Amino acid sequence: MEEIPTKPYLLRALYEWCVDNGYTPHLAVKVDSRSQVPSEYVRNSQITLNVSPNAVHKLQMGNELIEFSARFAGVARQISVPVAGVYALYARETGHGMTFEIDAAKPTVQTDAEGEPTKLASSNESGPAESPALASVPAAPTEPTKPTGGKPRLRRIK
Predict the structure, then answer these.
(1) Pick from 34, 21, 3: which is nearest to 97 by CA?
(2) Whether residues 149 and 78 fall in one domain
(3) Half-sphere exposure for 104 (CA within 13 Å, toward CB)
(4) Residue 16: in which H helix or E strand, if any?
(5) Measuring CA to CA, how many Å separate 107 from each of 101, 126, 133?
(6) Cβ atoms within 10 A of the Cβ of 66, count?
(7) Which of 55, 78, 99, 123 is the least crowded, having the fewest Cβ atoms under 10 Å away?
């Protein structure tokens, strides 16, 4: 049996913390083919969704999907986003929250004729492999960050 990731549990806990403190929880999502969101609000394959109890109806934050209905420009829409595509949950008022890595395909090692590893590649890539993602992830700041206007700066967790 495969272990359930911690990410959906952290999302539910952060959501509850926001609501308990009277903040407006926002989800930042990397949109892909599995996402069911209004395309007219997607920018650079990303969307930020207000998921406060006043803004959504029938919110279900499962281990695989986050689903709810909400109104966009007065039109009710059914929203569904994979937990794997959520890269942040934060309080709109303070910017406090967390960022997450986007779950990608698991790396695979390719071997040559002698069985020696040749390069690291993602299992859904057909092009040349790049260096492992961990090499390019910046270290988390040692002190909490405060928003500097615009989008909030959040801590990245692994």
Answers:
(1) 21
(2) yes
(3) 12
(4) helix 7-20
(5) 15, 13, 10
(6) 25
(7) 123
Q: What angle do CA 130, 131, 132 make, to 5 degrees?
A: 115
The reported pTM is 0.66
What percent of the chain lies above the pLDDT cut of 90? 62
pLDDT value for 114:
55
Q: List, in order, residues 6 or more apart from 108 with CB less than 8 Å away.
A: 120, 121, 122, 123
Indicate if 51 and 25 belong to the same structural domain.
yes
- Nearest by Cα to 79 from 97, 104, 61: 61
Compute and round to an integer the Cα radius of gyration of the chain: 18
Helix-, strand-, coil-residue percentages of the chain, each rounded to 5:
15, 35, 50
Any domain includes 29: yes
3-class SS of residue 117: strand
| Cα–Cα distance measured from residue 139 to residue 98, given in angstroms and rounded to the nearest whole number | 14
Percent of the chain whose predicted confidence (pLDDT) is above 70: 65
Domain hosting 132: range is 105-136
